[in-house]
Amino acid sequence: MSTDAMSIDAIAGLESDRLLLGRTSTAERLADVLRSRITEGYFEPGTRLSEEAIGGALGVSRNTLREAFRLLTHERLIVHELNRGVFVRMLSVQDVEDLYRVRKLIECATVRAVTEPPGERLAPLVAAVEAGEDAALRRSWRELGTADIRFHQALVTLAGSPRTDEVMRGLLAELRLVFYVMVEPEPFHEPYLTRNKEILAALRNGDGRGAELLLESYLDDAERQLTAAYKARAR
Known about the structure:
Elements: H1 8-21, H2 27-39, E1 48-49, H3 51-58, H4 62-74, E2 78-81, E3 85-88, H5 93-112, H6 123-137, H7 141-156, H8 162-179, H9 185-204, H10 208-234
Antiparallel strand pairs: 1-3, 2-3
Helix pairs in contact: 1-2, 1-3, 2-4, 2-8, 5-8, 5-10, 6-7, 6-9, 7-8, 7-9, 9-10
């Protein structure tokens, strides 16, 4: 699974992100860019992150880049290996179990609190579902995985808590690193698009409890599939 090298697409994508940094680029903004690229599936677990390539693509100093790496290490998205460099982290089955433990606490509590139709606040969830449908039609499973992550990030925004939003950004970036364990992404990702639509329909009706029951089943099934894949790989 380890690629141990950054792909041409990954570097090209970073070059397009250069404008996001602007002239007042900071380590925090750089960390946001790299976190987003991890969430979108551009960097696989085990990929070595080249200081020279990333610094050149984004036009940032080595010190700024190293500070961004430090922030992402703290978020458990990358690791520094002595005399080898910085790598995208490879997660364990214990990480998967803990990620889903926290997801259930945050996401289920968020939808449970919905007692009336959220109206326009559901727009980001609708956009994520539409992006997922488009990705499925094009058979772009990486993009479908990204759309699924965006759906759950948008779902948590219903809580109206910037701190919870921030926690979920980190959790869902880690989750992307888990998805790589699925050898066949299509049968894994595609059914959850339908389930996202069902959760969205319940929320449109203000049925938070119904959405919670759907979400609990969803998360239990996803955790079961992912942990089984990790255990199969370890045999």
